Amino acid sequence: MATVVVMPQLGNSVESCLIISWQVKVGDEVAVDGVLCEVETDKASMEVPSTAAGTVLAILWEEGDDVPVKDPIVVVGDAGEDPQPALDAAGWKGKDAEEEDVPTSDEGPHAQQEREAAPESESPDMTGDASQPSQGAAEAASGQASNGASSPRARNLAQSKNIDIDAVQQGSGPGGRVIERDVQAVLDGGGATLAAARAGAQPGEGTGLGGRVSTADLGKDAAAEAPKQATFVTSGNREYPGPTAATPLKGIRKVISERMMHSLASSAQLTYTSTAKAAGLLAMRKKLKNSPEELGLNKVTIGDLVGFAAVKAAAKHTNHNGHLEDGTFTTFENVHLGMAVDTPRGLLVPTVRNASQMSLREFSATSKDLAYQAIDGKINPDLLAGATFTVSNLGGFGIESFTPLLNVPQVAILGVDAIFPRATIDEDGNVGVEQRIGFSLTADHRVIDGADAARFLQDLVKYIENIDITALG
Question: Which of 25, 209, 340, 343 lies 20 to 30 Å from 171 when distance is taken between CA atoms?
């Protein structure tokens, strides 16, 4: 009997996985635990094993699709077996079913029943207007033989791009239904096809109150239909704006975008800056680099020393080592340090759990191991959550000051800046130069006052300038 293999939940916080590449094709034999595909979560990339053995009867998603966890991805069974009964038993309606069947935010709980009771009426979408003609009426006017089926997302895209949805002749959804990618294909095709689609389009949503079409909107439509004016000739008659590349945000990049916007919108962030003498750091790093290899300290970096000192400061100032969620402020006795790591897939933040209980050697080794796992895309997603305080180090890029964003629900994050020379004047008026390192502390002002942040930085400076003593603790 055929078996449906579903997308596993690769970590407690993972909700969907982006398929990077398929390792099998229909007709291939696969064993239990054999690799089906490579996927990317919002945090890492990994391989998906098969939970059944047999012949691959059907592959339900394409490369580049974002698949919810627990959704079917392939059907495995005996060669020549029909995969449909297994899919029916699993309740699988196709990968576009969610797009087509889920009511939009403006629909009531009985909207689906109302659509079934009145199939000739077009269901409203999120950007629709009550005065807009129904799709059935548009078909009657245009004389097209389309069955009129289109998804809400397809209609939204068509309306936003001033395209007549009825001009999309072939739908790739179930039963020939027009879905979002069909409209996008018309946009990508351009030329006469796009011109014909726009010829029968209704005016888009206006810029006036409540989406009303204003005179300015009509002026834009008229301008679009007006004959093109002579192109301004420049030196060499260069094309404007030149080659471009449009890339939809997805995977890790999309998650980073959403989380950064949420961070700014949901917290009261304020950044404080300070500097410390770096002579002790540089001397300590040189001494450790030349230490006996058996001590395991010769690979300790400046970043490790700064991170170790930051953990000490967060352990002392527990109001910086906490989470603020739903009006409740929780502080932690142990510091679980998040480290911002630059990876080929984007920013990841592995967590050094119980960092405040580690020696310098253990902290350095653990930090490097987690960073390598993140860069290779092989880190357990659960190790990318649970941090109580975060350090982001841009000093290696020569950045002297920046404003790190909170990794909410955390309430503080320390930005580590570059080591740079600064002029000094001693008591006798003699001018000199010393090396200093900068710090940028962003804190949530809802629970951390300016004086609290200043005290944190004061202690951090002491720990840095006396790093040889700090390392002993």
Answer: 25
Do 3-95 and 252-470 agree at the fold level?
Answer: no
- Alpha-carbon distance of 393 to 404, in angstroms, equals 10
Half-sphere exposure of 374 (CA within 13 A, CB side): 26
Q: What is the pLDDT of residue 271?
A: 97
377-398 per-position pLDDT tens digit? 888 888 999 999 999 999 999 9
**Cβ-count burial 104-140 (b if 16+ within 10 Å, e if not):** beebeeeeeeeeeeeeeebbbbebbbeebeebeebbe
Instruction: Supply the pLDDT for residue 463.
Output: 97
Supply the CATH classification number for the domain 3-95: 2.40.50.100
- Cα separation, 143 vs 88, whole angstroms: 37
pLDDT < 50 positions in the chain = 99-146, 202-204, 221-222, 225
HSE-up (13 A, CA, CB side) for residue 170: 4
> Could you give the CA distance from residue 162 to residue 390 in angstroms, rounded to a whole number?
46
3-state secondary structure of 238: coil
Among the listed residues 356, 334, 340, the one whose alpha carbon sits nearest the alpha carbon of residue 442: 340
Angle subtended at Cα 42 by Cα 346 and Cα 60, rounded to the nearest 5 degrees: 125
Helix intervals (H) in 46-89: 84-89
What does the pLDDT read at residue 188? 74
**Spatial separation of the C-alpha atoms in residues 439 and 444, rounded to whole Å:** 16
Torsions phi, psi for 75 (to 5 deg): -120, 130
CATH number of the structural domain 252-470: 3.30.559.10
Question: Residue ranges of the domains in the chain?
Answer: 3-95, 121-206, 252-470
96 — alpha (psi -120 to 50), left (phi > 0) or beta? Answer: alpha
| Confidence at residue 50, expressed as pLDDT on a 0 to 100 scale | 92
